[in-house]
Amino acid sequence: MALKIKKHFPQSIFLLLLLFACDYIFAQSRTISGTVTSKEEGLPIPGVSILVKGSATGTQTSASGVFSLKIPNGTTSLSFSVVGYEAMDFPIDTSSHINVVLTSRLVQLSELIVTGSGVATSRARVAISVESLSGKNLAPTPQATIDEGLVGRIPGAQISSVDGTPGATTNIVLRGINTVQGNTSPMILVDGVQAFGTDISTLDPAAVDHIEVVQGAAASTIYGAQGANGVIQVFTKKGQPGKTRIDISSNVSLANYLNVGNVHEARLSSFKTDANGNFVDSNGDKVTLDPNGIYEDVNWAYGTDANNPSAMANPLNIYHQQYGTNLKYYDHFAQLFQTTYNRNNSVAVSGASSAADYHIDLSNNHQQSNIRHNGYNDRTNLTSNLGIELFKGFTIRSIAQLVYTKNTLNPFFQSGNNAMLYALEVSPYVNFDQKLADGTYPFTLYGVNGGRAALNPNYIAEYSSEVSNRVDILENLQADFARTARAKG
User: Fold this and answer.
1) CA–CA separation, 44 vs 38, rounded Å?
2) Which letter does DSSP use for residue 485 in this model?
3) What pLDDT was estimated at residue 348?
4) pLDDT at residue 90 above 80?
């Protein structure tokens, strides 16, 4: 009997140690259970990931939002996360049951788009190209108009100014244009309302919350036939919760025509000169100009006179003679164009409470023309976005935009092309700023090398003018009723 006990003694010791080890392990952990619900609706949230912070130990909530997890002793918090809700770390103590409430997470702008019905839709569910641009990133530098801020920021879009005239419309062509009807302009929506007669360039960039651009002919599946050329949706800012906020902005920008290609008029001529370097005609007589910049005693209209300026050209046609004797070189680009200083000022008042929000923006933009004596374009915008919850779940929102534009640009220079044309056609030795004896500008100036007469830009600016006043009103009234579902029992 003693020999038998001695034979199994090592195995008995091993089993005894194993029982002690298991008892020690179980003594170092405990089970905690609980429920996870949403803060907004109070409903259980299924599929919530629960991890012991700093470890890989975890579980998920059931369809009823219930979980049970064995955690090591000394655990101080659990991490809760699920798509659509803010992740949180929940501190725990010695309690064996906890109730966790998660807050809905605001979806980022890049994850949602707003369709023609004004309903937010997941980008993954829309089979068309949609680009989103936040108002904060609309332009890194001050911009006078929204379309200027869009340049280079929408892939596949061609956005260019028709000319450099202040207040001129911008040509916007989105990918997948519709050319059958001969119209390539996209559909413009402001807070869900189509802007039929209002150009996007008249809207206030400071009041923009974000912009969505829907490209391609497939946009017509959402917006109808008018959206075949693409759609640009502009959404204005709303008031944010907190105390009343006042934002003031003011900037001044400098504008110049760029001549990166060194375009200029000929600074040399092939005209005949005498021994003193004076320009002479075919008879050897010194060339003189009348106040119109026309050769005296020359029948320039028909070019039949023997002293026609074209006869002054050197037979060898070598451009080597400098101006500066009896004919002076004038830089017509410097005489026609000017540097302008444009200003943009705005003030915004915003705020929100539990039942109402408001954002009111007043701005003024003043742009001068780079063409001398060509006036200015002055735009004043008043934008208001007001929302109020009349009773639980029922909200009324009023979005209004009032735009007043005063334009004093000369109708002759409206496109800017005419001024450039005449600056290039006039002979370099003609002075734009020279006046007649009565103090007025001449009507015509002599063309290049005896060519046809050109109109004097200063004469046009002196005897033609126009002042236009325009008012645009955009109003959008929305009513929304949302009923929150509650769990029974």
Assistant:
1) 6
2) P
3) 92
4) yes
Compute the C-alpha angle 293/297/303, nearest 5°. Answer: 85
* Residue pLDDT, tens place only, 233-288: 888 888 888 788 999 988 888 888 777 787 777 778 777 778 887 887 767 778 77
- What is the DSSP track for 160-177? EESSS-TT--EEEE-SS-
Q: What is the CA radius of gyration of the chain?
A: 39
Q: In which element (H, E) is residue 418 found? A: helix 417-425
Q: How far apart are CA 459 and CA 88, in angstroms?
A: 73
Rounded Cα distance between 212 and 341, Å, is: 31
Tell me the torsion sign for CA atoms 417, 138, 407, 374.
negative
> Looking at the predicted structure, is the pLDDT value of residue 487 above 50?
no
What is the distance between the alpha carbons of residues 371 and 275, in angstroms, rounded to a whole number?
40
Picking from 208, 229, 224, the residue whose alpha carbon sits closest to that of residue 158 is: 229
Which tokens in the block code for residue 439? 């103090």
Using the structure block, give the residue that is written with the tokens 């450099």.
164
Q: How confident is the model at residue 383 (pLDDT cuts 50, 70, 90)?
A: very high
How many whole angstroms separate alpha carbon 188 and alpha carbon 186?
6
210-239 burial string, b = 16+ CB within 10 Å, else e? bbbbbbbbbbbebbeeebbbbbbbbbbbbb
Residues comprising the chain, all counted: 489
Cα separation, 444 vs 230, in Å, equals 47
Q: How far apart are CA 380 and CA 346, in angstroms?
A: 10
Helix (H, G, I), strand (E, B) or coil at 202: helix
489: nearest Cα among 101, 42, 68, 100: 42
Q: Which of 190, 185, 237, 239 is nearest to 212 (CA)?
A: 190
